[in-house]
Amino acid sequence: xxxxxxxxxxxxxxxxxxxxxxxxxxxxxxxxxxxxxxxxxxxxxxxxxxxxxxxxxxxxxxxxxxxxxxxxxxxxxxxxxxxxxxxxxxxxxxxxxxxxxxxxxxxxxxxxxxxxxxxxxxxxxxxxxxxxxxxxxxxxxxxxxxxxxxxxxxxxxxxxxxxxxxxxxxxxxxxxxxxxxxxxxxxxxxxxxxxxxxxxxxxxxxxxxxxxxxxxxxxxxxxxxxxxxxxxxxxxxxxxxxxxxxxxxxxxxxxxxxxxxxxxxxxxxxxxxxxxxxxxxxxxxxxxxxx
Amino acid sequence: xxxxxxxxxxxxxxxxxxxxxxxxxxxxxxxxxxxxxxxxxxxxxxxxxxxxxxxxxxxxxxxxxxxxxxxxxxxxxxxxxxxxxxxxxxxxxxxxxxxxxxxxxxxxxxxxxxxxxxxxxxxxxxxxxxxxxxxxxxxxxxxxxxxxxxxxxxxxxxx
Amino acid sequence: xxxxxxxxxxxxxxxxxxxxxxxxxxxxxxxxxxxxxxxxxxxxxxxxxxxxxxxxxxxxxxxxxxxxxxxxxxxxxxxxxxxxxxxxxxxxxxxxxxxxxxxxxxxxxxxxxxxxxxxxxxxxxxxxxxxxxxxxxxxxxxxxxxxxxxxxxxxxxxxxxxxxxxxxxxxxxxxxxxxxxxxxxxxxxxxxxxxxxxxxxxxxxxxxxxxxxxxxxxxxxxxxxxxxxxxxxxxxxxxxxxxxxxxxxxxxxxxxxxxxxxxxxxxxxxxxxxxxxxxxxxxxxxxxxxxxxxxxxxxxxxxxxxxxxxxxxxxxxxxxxxxxxxxxxxxxxxxxxxxxxxxxxxxxxxxxxxxxxxxxxxxxxxxxxxxxxxxxxxxxxxxxxxxxxxxxxxxxxxxxxxxxxxxxxxxxxxxxxxxxxxxxxxxxxxxxxxxxxxxxxxxxxxxxxxxxxxxxxxxxxxxxxxxxxxxxxxxxxxxxxxxxxxxxxxxxxxxxxxxxxxxxxxxxxxxxxxxxxxxxxxxxxxxxxxxxxxxxxxxxxxxxxxxxxxxxxxxxxxxxxxxxxxxxxxxxxxxxxxxxxxxxxxxxxxxxxxxxxxxxxxxxxxxxxxxxxxxxxxxxxxxxxxxxxxxxxxxxxxxxxxxxxxxxxxxxxxxxxxxxxxxxxxxxxxxxxxxxxxxxxxxxxxxxxxxxxxxxxxxxxxxxxxxxxxxxxxxxxxxxxxxxxxxxxxxxxxxxxxxxxxxxxxxxxxxxxxx
Lengths: 291, 159, 755
What we know:
The structure holds three protein chains of three kinds.
Chain A: E1 5-7, H1 12-21, E2 26-29, H2 35-41, E3 48-51, E4 61-62, E5 70-72, H3 77-82, H4 84-89, H5 91-98, H6 103-106, H7 111-116, H8 125-131, E6 134-139, E7 142-147, E8 152-154, E9 157-158, E10 165-170, E11 178-185, E12 196-204, E13 210-218, E14 225-226, H9 228-232, H10 241-254, H11 265-288
Helix pairs in contact in A: 5-8, 10-11
Chain B: E1 4-10, E2 13-19, H1 25-32, E3 51-54, E4 57-60, E5 73-75, H2 88-95, H3 105-118, H4 124-130, H5 142-157
Parallel strand pairs in B: 1-5
Antiparallel strand pairs in B: 1-2, 3-4, 3-5
Chain C: H1 21-26, E1 41-47, E2 53-59, H2 61-65, E3 69-74, H3 94-101, E4 106-107, E5 113-119, H4 122-131, E6 133-138, H5 145-149, E7 175-183, H6 186-189, E8 195-203, E9 215-220, E10 226-230, H7 235-246, E11 253-257, H8 273-283, E12 287-290, H9 293-299, E13 306-314, E14 320-330, H10 339-346, E15 355-362, H11 377-394, H12 399-405, H13 425-433, E16 446-455, E17 460-468, E18 474-478, H14 486-498, E19 505-509, H15 526-553, E20 560-563, E21 566-569, E22 580-581, H16 582-587, H17 589-592, E23 596-604, E24 610-620, E25 627-637, H18 644-663, E26 694-699, H19 721-733, H20 744-754
Parallel strand pairs in C: 1-12, 10-11, 14-15, 18-19, 25-26
Antiparallel strand pairs in C: 1-5, 2-4, 2-6, 3-5, 7-15, 8-13, 9-10, 9-12, 13-14, 16-24, 17-18, 17-23, 20-21, 21-22, 24-25
Helix pairs in contact in C: 10-11, 11-19, 14-15, 18-19
């Protein structure tokens, strides 16, 4: 059967009810920039599509840098890019989201969709992971919160149970001397799926020593990676060349990529280190200018 | 599977149509509403030939479902000229020979109009990155970008 | 034919707005998929998922029973064709063509059409395809050309015996032909070389990448007449081939040319038109078939991958003494790879006394390899330009100087025989040599690359009609689809000859029942050959006007001249007559002999070969292998630029395609022979942010074979970019790159290997 049922509920509870009661294969529709392509090729064959864009709270950004932003899961990339305070506090997270596809894709794509599509190469997810974002999940048993990196479990699969979907992302409070950055390697200048992605989020103290760091790598493992050893290579250092070299080596070591039509194992492993280092430099410079 | 009855706004006019859930907005525009100016180049959001403005946002209509349009509004290439006059971008594209086969042109015009409405003074790089989602195989983009930048200058100058 | 070489022109060389432009910027223009007929059905094609397989059986019974399905066809619905090329077939093997359009006993590539349905909606058509039961016996497949040529390779056809080799082979193979072109004795002449460079190159298959997928609407009526709307690079070709394949008469088929959204050679042959006609006949309703993007990549006619060896020898002072090249080109599942053209063009920019070009083509389990803009030449040129560049490096010689020193010019003999008439190779080299880009200093990891390219261009058959209305305005009609702005050029040429304003000339592309035969829009021939037909048709009108005025003035026709859109007395003995405008003559047409119609039908010879020289700067990220094209300048000899903006456009478009071919475009196959990147996401054509402005320099060394001096311009631009980019990358990285495309992983691996 080629068709599907389509519902556009107005509340989270109604959406949960539809998803929980679905007899066949149910999919959440946010921007549709992944789902509709998959439906077209037959890779996805839903019986029910639940459009969450009419649910008000999913379409808002609330909070502030100091108290912590809350980003609705169905806010578009274009809207995220236009949010000045968010872009000022979390430029790396925003630039990751903004790199997804074209201007047209930005008009529709969402961070919730990018995360839950669970492509290893999603451009928004590493920045969310590096930021320490929490995914707020609604389901039949109410709401629960998990670190973002626990949502994708393998390519195309999430840890969400039947009836559950992501409604928002909570960012931690943003203090001074903090900065984040996201870089990706693509063959062209736009439009490509990342061959490697690297996000670095860090905080410095007044002496310029890195006191906290999170490094997240994309497209070099079945899911987005949180590279603890890479972060540890930065913490306690003044982020000099030696520390950056150690970071790069740790990032390459953490990478467990496959070879596919977009890149070789060797290439991805090497470039993971290169991009992690470059992203760390940008994050460091942003942190220094954010005193 | 019964069809959905959708009431929406197309190019400023109230419009109703029936569609299957699986039909995209592009399918609806072309096959139900006979607005064939938006083109199908890839159906995967990679070429921009189907670009339209949805509630004021530049999107690929091949990645929007027809059923999502209830109560929304869409503007297509067919709405760009008005009062028997071409939009400055349309006129400039003609004068600057910024089209060869013309297939990508409606998408580029819709996207370029969106650019200039958001940023009336784009740099060459900003224009190129904004338009990176519109593929052209004939022109190498040179004359298209020049036309967009020149139109931007003209429109700023005539204010 | 009047000679216009020394005239200054009123319209030729200007840049007016094209006559079909407003429809294109408003969305009104109708392309292949925009046509809708009442009662139209949607046609869909079932395609093989196997690269090579016997088709044991096809059971369409369940599909035929599905409500809404009005017709189902397979290969057995197609008439049987003779397997061979007969005189008058213009080189086409109709059996192969038919089998490519719909498989018979074998599926020969992933995407090969095996059945088709027509139904009342796309959804039902898709469902019907899923109900067709095809039983395959999967066979081993082969895709790489070198592997295909090896003994023991999976055999695609049992009736291909390599031509051009002695002794004639007794066993069939995948190698279709060997061709050889030679001047002098290069093997002996290599002994005179002080330096020899010998290199092997490999390139991957690419697609023309037109944004408009193939589309057709076919309508059949009970008296056996058929109407076809489609976009193509030649609606007469569509008529001819459809008629032959379906055993219909040409005049029974009327093909209406839709606007075309790009072709670049890929739409000079048919893939879906006969299928649509057969479905329409069976369903007794019009049928529309539009290829999806996936089908375009898997089921149309992309360009071949290659394996090339080039050897060139030079003296210390840079004089080239000998050159050889062996060009092994993939064909697709059926013969037809452009290896002959590749041999003709490879060494074109160089005056060589001792040169040999050998070409092989071998069938592989891929879609039919077809034309892509200067077919064959970009790759053979890439190899030659890379070796020339390496020789220049070895001699510590300026790559420009070595090309000027050995550059082809008037009198140079080409490897395929003829001697060049006036051409612009040296002129292009000089203008690039003097371009300011050469003064821009290069930074770290940056390199500058130079390459020259050649294409011989074509003439061929064209027809044209010029109709003058009673008010003196003109409608001109040809049968050449307009793929790049040629209607503007036709109008300019007609306006120039008639002497009237460009805006008073309205050009159209007539359908196959309306205008005389026109060969396909290929070979950079339309402005040259169809333009020549327009010129002659306009001159025909001018002659008729002079004859009618001669009668009015009661003088000999030689006493009436045509100047500036008016008939005037040619001399004192013609009397003191007031000049008569075209409008005034047209107003009297019914009383002076009838409607003013000029026509011409020609087989144009005298096409002028053309040269291009490109130079570009790139930067290579040494840690990621990513290439940025910083600057690009292209010079080309256009003979005479009728509409300079569209000549520039052809150059810029060809450059962009060549850059994509060099850096990122390739067909990626899995171990199962299935195409892995059949979409624009992973088949990476350049996007706007990938390219800089492309500086174009048009030179005009007049082609003596055309009244205005026109040379074809459409194909030359794609020939130099592969060499220019590869040479620039080589200079930036210090590593010679021989394996296209130059993707970042390959470049980084090469840089790291060098360390």
